[in-house]
Amino acid sequence: MPKFRRIATEEAWSTPEVAELLRQVSRGLSRSLDLPIVRGIYDNPAGDPPLLKKLLDTADMRLRTMDENNVDMHLLALTSPGVQMFTSREAVRLAEVANDRLAEVVAAHPDRFAWLASFAPQDPAAAVKEIHRARTELGANGFMVNSHTDGEYLDEEKFWPILEALNDLRAPLYIHPRAVPEGFDSALRAYGIETAIWGYGVETGTHAVRLIMSGVFDRFPDLKIVIGHMGEGVPFWLWRMDRMADPHRRRPAHRPPYRMSEKPSFYFKRNFAITTSGMESVPALKYSIEVLGDENVMWAIDYPYQDMPDAVQFLDDADIPDESKAKIYSGNAERIFGIAPN
Amino acid sequence: MPKFRRIATEEAWSTPEVAELLRQVSRGLSRSLDLPIVRGIYDNPAGDPPLLKKLLDTADMRLRTMDENNVDMHLLALTSPGVQMFTSREAVRLAEVANDRLAEVVAAHPDRFAWLASFAPQDPAAAVKEIHRARTELGANGFMVNSHTDGEYLDEEKFWPILEALNDLRAPLYIHPRAVPEGFDSALRAYGIETAIWGYGVETGTHAVRLIMSGVFDRFPDLKIVIGHMGEGVPFWLWRMDRMADPHRRRPAHRPPYRMSEKPSFYFKRNFAITTSGMESVPALKYSIEVLGDENVMWAIDYPYQDMPDAVQFLDDADIPDESKAKIYSGNAERIFGIAPN
Fold first, then answer.
1. FRET partner for A337 with CA separation of 20 to 30 A, picked from A99, A210, B133, B302?
2. Residues forming a β-bridge with A184
3. Mutation target among A43, A277, A287 for the B interface, most CBs of B within 10 A
4. Considering CB atoms only, which of A37, A241, A286 is closest to B198?
5. Band of the pLDDT at A47, cuts 50, 70, 90?
6. Domain boundaries, chain A
């Protein structure tokens, strides 16, 4: 096996200011389906739980585990739900704080870390300002948002200034899962399926489908969206989406007019890339390479929620060409996130 | 190419009594996401539209089109949403009417048609009675339900008598899509994505995941569920579901106790089969065969919503072994639905 450079592209991090406010916020809420996991991590009465310790840690345990597993870089981002459960004012402030902290972490180890910055969709004008600051002053490699904000999705017109800024700066946006909002939750309130078992994919896949169908990629053709977990189910649906929503065919009478000019798969291949986070299935990887091309798939661990050794072994052992493996391990991440090649 | 027997396993049919009541019901509702398509088909002011004509037709156009495309049999079923938008009393009555009518249609062409009977989940006791009647007196090859009923899913305890009857009679249940219910709809109210574009899979896949996670397959181990559209996205999620919900591993502290005793994929392979309806993607077919086995995949057209020639060409041309193709075209349907071999 060649010596691959391994860049993991969906790696979770947090900072005490955000962790503390999440703990407070989780005590004041009752209905949100994000609560079980937020309480489990940030409001654990047993004290400092291992998961939170790993999230807050950067140079110590994380780098050691990376070394042990021959992982060259982590693309770090403030972990879900980021600043999106806070009031607009708190969210704007904490996005800035988190970005400043994370920029410092990366500056201390520029060969081991790259990063995605946060912004507060609650205040689109402030978000645009922070996107410019984080990209041009702090050098962020891209941005991360945790799906919906108060039940709203980025295809809605109020968020277009955010998409425009990302488009103009050629800054990729990673859409990470969180639990579905109220109103999109009833069938998922059972057996814990609102989580990574099923619901996160429903939420984030729906976000991707909304963006595609809304036509925003005609308006912002350079916008690049990254989604994890082998594409949140969307790659498996592409044939059916193309069949059911092809602007070049006659629209069924009971359907609303198309907003986009091309078939869904056109945008998914041009404006999206997917990562392997938390989805270490070789058949799903090979399927995704076949329908999307090996230039649209990136490796990710989802540390500390998933284990590093398993993620490395998954791609090391996958029976795909070394050339594809090199792209998935690092070549595509270098291109999409602007990480300097070795 | 060998001469395959072609049994199409998700073929839509309707009867004037149901069509008329759907037309009436659709005028009295406003919020249901089933409305656009129900109105489009049953309440089209332009008169008798081609789709409704094809649904109501049996011996005439349908058999001719089957002959033209070398399709041997249709497994017919009352088309979505079946009787599930009616009041309990109307639903019970119309399930009986539809089953009587469809049994007659099949009796007139036993070599060309098999069928799935309807029941009214609104009244579980009446449903159990009708399941027994349709199976033992009318000879139904199985049953079809159109996902949720008034926002409730079959894993809920009130429906267990239905699952028990199906289990005891060894009668397969086809869970067909309909639009998501209120409370599970907010994010899907945009760009027509509540339909086959995306939402039907969210709804029906969620139904399948709920059944698996609820543990009903430990209670009813012979229950066989069939889902269409290449498994409604579930096959692509199996690795992640197994990773996130494995009763043999330690449960994360913030998760509810497991209700089932085995991993999700165990039940999906033992208690489910999928069909290719409306999903003519060779990569998706090959992926599904790889993770589920060729004994769990059946061919379907979804006539008249989808075209027969495309569906035949899809499987005729797929680069899979003829042995697998024979199982998918008819062998598995003969076994699962009790259709006599040629």
1. A210
2. B184
3. A287
4. A241
5. low
6. 8-337
